[in-house]
From TrEMBL:
<feature type="domain" description="Acyl-CoA dehydrogenase/oxidase N-terminal">
    <location>
        <begin position="16"/>
        <end position="98"/>
    </location>
</feature>
<dbReference type="GO" id="GO:0003995">
    <property type="term" value="F:acyl-CoA dehydrogenase activity"/>
</dbReference>
<dbReference type="GO" id="GO:0050660">
    <property type="term" value="F:flavin adenine dinucleotide binding"/>
</dbReference>
<dbReference type="InterPro" id="IPR037069">
    <property type="entry name" value="AcylCoA_DH/ox_N_sf"/>
</dbReference>
<dbReference type="Pfam" id="PF02771">
    <property type="entry name" value="Acyl-CoA_dh_N"/>
</dbReference>
<dbReference type="Pfam" id="PF02770">
    <property type="entry name" value="Acyl-CoA_dh_M"/>
</dbReference>
<dbReference type="InterPro" id="IPR013786">
    <property type="entry name" value="AcylCoA_DH/ox_N"/>
</dbReference>
<dbReference type="InterPro" id="IPR013107">
    <property type="entry name" value="Acyl-CoA_DH_C"/>
</dbReference>
<feature type="domain" description="Acyl-CoA oxidase/dehydrogenase middle">
    <location>
        <begin position="128"/>
        <end position="218"/>
    </location>
</feature>
<keyword id="KW-0560">Oxidoreductase</keyword>
<dbReference type="Pfam" id="PF08028">
    <property type="entry name" value="Acyl-CoA_dh_2"/>
</dbReference>
<feature type="region of interest" description="Disordered">
    <location>
        <begin position="130"/>
        <end position="150"/>
    </location>
</feature>
<dbReference type="InterPro" id="IPR046373">
    <property type="entry name" value="Acyl-CoA_Oxase/DH_mid-dom_sf"/>
</dbReference>
<keyword id="KW-0285">Flavoprotein</keyword>
<dbReference type="InterPro" id="IPR006091">
    <property type="entry name" value="Acyl-CoA_Oxase/DH_mid-dom"/>
</dbReference>
<feature type="domain" description="Acyl-CoA dehydrogenase C-terminal">
    <location>
        <begin position="249"/>
        <end position="368"/>
    </location>
</feature>
<dbReference type="InterPro" id="IPR009100">
    <property type="entry name" value="AcylCoA_DH/oxidase_NM_dom_sf"/>
</dbReference>
Length: 396
């Protein structure tokens, strides 16, 4: 039995969601194979290109659909119900295009080039900033990747880790310390200019293609230096609050929904010979099912409410929501872990078998703890927001 998505608001959203729903079912059939082999799901990406999803967040002026953040989350959550790896990977692309659409950090001719390549060629983009020595860029580490000024541009050498979607990227936004300065620049690099080392061999999200990319004396024209990063990894450009990063909680909530569906169907249909009815009527099973529903309802309601407010909000209002986006991510990822755990308790030891999706969902959902913002950063932001009204401004 299919569940109607309770957060769909209109027929336009429903029509596009149904396209993604159909793809999600196909991706689910392939997920175990890619998980076992840690292989990149090229056929899934091809399907997302064929249906046009890769340019749904591109501005209409450049041929895209310009869908809202809210609708992007509807789609991302649904993709993750089929395959979390595919959803997380493509989420960085569609989310980043939405962010670029909102903030316009690139020179307009460069942005137009990226958008049109996305629409006409299915080109994909992601930002790759993490390095072995610096860890997550959100922690403020300065990149060891170096950009040396030369005639007409820069020569860049370095290595980036956790480069999700790397086997399919046409554009890569990399950070590099500019030689002879204290600046950290952002540079657009073509996918064919880098070497991919297939280092991604993890227990979770095994099919995201988050390999290392190696830049070996890559030449980047001056026009493709598109930004400067300030202290603490902050972008020296317009801030939109980071609403696009809600694609992360949407992904993990999608994984949790898949686990919930498995557990609910199992509870409604499994009847051991020790009982006169399915286990769904057993009180402790009902309690677990109820806990799952409550956790999902709370996390999803917060996420979609924030997305709707971001879509309709002013630039100033969006920036002020940053700590709330962190709260949504932390609430969602931790709730998703708890939901998958409850699903496995309902199904019992059978959930450990490799021929059931639950053990893969259990592994995949834990990766959310390591996507930004991390829990400690969220709690710090929330604490600062709580005391801000009572904090005296420093004296001049």
């Amino acid at each position: 039995m299919e569940r109607e998505h309770r957060f769909i608001r209109n027929e336009t959203e429903r029509s596009r969601w149904q396209v993604i729903h159909a793809l999600s079912r196909q991706f689910a059939a392939r997920a175990a194979e890619h998980d076992q082999a840690a292989s990149f799901p090229h056929e899934n990406i091809a399907d997302l290109r064929a249906c046009g999803y890769v340019h749904w967040t591109v501005p209409k002026a450049y041929g895209g659909e310009e869908i809202s953040l809210y609708e992007m989350l509807l789609c991302q959550e649904e993709l993750a119900r089929g395959d979390g790896s595919t959803a997380l990977a493509i989420g960085w692309h569609v989310g980043m295009m939405l962010n670029l659409r909102t903030t316009r950090p690139f020179p307009e001719d460069v942005f137009a080039e990226v958008c049109r390549s996305c629409v006409t060629d299915g080109a994909l983009i992601n930002s790759c900033a993490t390095e072995p020595a610096t860890g997550s860029p959100s922690r403020g580490g300065k990149p060891q990747t170096r950009a040396v000024p030369v005639d007409g541009g820069y020569r860049i050498r370095g290595r980036k880790t956790f480069s999700t979607l790397s086997p399919a990227l046409s554009w890569i936004l990399v950070t590099a310390t500019v030689e002879g300065t204290d600046e950290v620049g952002e540079f657009l690099v073509r996918g064919e200019q880098v070497r991919i080392e297939e280092t991604w061999n993890t227990m979770s999200m095994r099919a995201t293609g988050s390999h290392d990319i190696v830049l070996e004396d890559v030449f980047v024209p001056e026009r493709y230096r598109v930004g400067t990063v300030g202290p603490g990894g902050q972008k020296a450009r317009q801030d939109d609050g980071g609403g696009w990063m809600l694609h992360i909680p949407a992904c993990y909530l999608g994984i949790a929904l898949a686990a919930r569906d498995i557990a609910a169907e199992y509870a409604a249909t499994y009847q051991p010979n020790s009982l006169p009815h399915p286990i769904a009527q057993v009180p402790h099973i009902q309690e677990k099912l109820g806990q799952m529903e409550l956790k999902l309802l709370a996390a999803r309601t917060l996420m979609y409410d924030l997305a709707a407010r971001w879509d309709s909000g002013s630039p100033e209002a969006r920036v002020a929501m940053k700590h709330e986006f962190g709260a949504a991510k932390t609430l969602a990822t931790n709730a998703a872990i708890e939901v998958v755990d409850l699903a496995m308790r309902i199904v019992g030891a059978r959930s450990l078998w490799r021929d059931m999706p639950l053990e893969r969902l259990y592994r995949d959902v834990r990766a959310g703890l390591h996507n930004p913002p991390m829990d400690d950063a969220t709690y710090r932001m929330l604490a600062q927001a709580a005391v801000a009204p009572y904090t005296k401004a420093p004296q001049a």
